[in-house]
Amino acid sequence: MVIKGIGASPGIAIGKILVLENTEMIIEKRENSDVEKELVKLSDAVEISKAELQNVKEKVKNELGEEESEIFGAHLLVLDDPEFIGEAENKIKNESVNAEYALDSVKEMFVSIFESMDNDYMRERAADIKDVTNRVLRHILGIKVVDLSSLDEEVILVANDLTPSDTAVMDKSKVLGFLTNIGGRTSHTAIMARTLEIAAIVGLNDITEKANDGEFVIFDGDKGEVIINPTQLEIDLYTEKKKAFEIDKKSLELLKGKQSITIDGRVVELAGNIGTPNDVEGLIKNDAEGVGLYRTEFLYMDSNELPSEEVQFEAYRAVLEGMNGKPIVIRTLDIGGDKKLSYFEMDEEMNPFLGYRAIRLCLDRTDIFKTQLRALYRASMFGKLRIMFPMISSLEELLSAKKVCEDVKHELEKEGVAYSDDVEIGMMIEIPSAAVISDILAKHVDFFSIGTNDLIQYTCAVDRMNQKISYLYNQFNPAVLRLIRLVIKNAHAEGKWVGMCGESAGDQKMIPILLGFGLDEFSMSPISILRARRLINSVSKSDMEKLSEDILALSTAEEIESYMDNFIANR
Asked: Residue 68: exposed, middle, or buried by beta-carbon count in 10 A (0-12, 13-18, 19+)?
């Protein structure tokens, strides 16, 4: 069976399927005369969950350290609390109800109590109760629970989609590839696959229905082709493709230590996008010249509570020290939209991508914002830090964010806490209003970084996660390209540099256009860096300026993409 999807991360994957079911838990109240049976059901599920959590705790302790493993220690304490489990047992005995209903009712009661407390620490324990209870409930209901942190063998994950928490906890050494029903090249799954250098295909629509656990599958993450239960001939063909891919990958090693420079001497910076300090290894391996985007939201997502100033400081310091003085752009908290925190209550919104998120949330919750900025400024003593604000739409927002930075610096000075006075402040250009007034904004920042993932969807009014209209989400849309050129021109007029941290920065068909526009820094998934350098080293800036003018004379995205297909093919 051959299925076509969207190639999201390059590589050839060959292996067995593991399907991740996204089964909704339906809890219904049922009267039950067999009380003993329900008590045993609850007890068995609790014991299985304890064993799982103990294994995960030990694994995390060995790989990441004692502090990180304590999240799972907290979960074990919940299951060992006689008041919590005892309350569920009493409910089964006294009300003759089914085990899952009894446990879910107790969970809701305890969560409500903890969330109403004045103490921040106690309020945050509500998230632990939710997480661990849901684990037990899945066992009671017979829903398959796949622990991605302790996989027994190498697998290719098949899912409707992968959540940020899925990718945060998975054992990367055991995952050969991702195949998902939904998503595009800029979805979280695609971005994380490239960051982790794992082959992936997204937008397969119904791969979870067509694939079964244990079946053999092969796929090409570049072309977007999946073959389930391949013939021996197909296996042999893809094994050869895999060898060729690895040979090409090795040839790129020769570019390490070389400048990212065009034939006629235009030097640019090739940086990488990362989500955790652990990703620094991939940047060094791929000879990144810096970090163009550190997505700090994963620090918040991979936690059961808001990370403390100290936890954040250690993470930021690790990245700054790990990159040995190379510039590091760290984006302030960008949650909301499709990025939620289990322990942070957010109202349901009609249009969450246009709602309470990113800098809007931070300017409203300055307590959260200041904690992060304090950690950032303290870490600035350990490397070349650049702070970047997401989702700025007006000068007022930018000035307000800068004011909070100044307040934090004054606080640190009063406390005698050291920080660097050489921290650049920048902002993302991902909203059309910011691009249009980039001449004004450029006077108040040290740099811009263009986030094409959101700039495209906001400019074209296209939800990038909506499969039905994904054909309208196109980086070659003339309106998008004109906005990019405008931003670069306005920034350069003020003597400011411009980077790009959206996925377009690493696209072989976009790089020549961006060179022609004068982009200074290209930040991409680490896996794309050496391929980008090979392309940049093979062209001249003057030729790319002419190419970019030709591109802007075209009328449609289709014409532009076709032009670039021909350019790449004929090089």
From this structure: middle
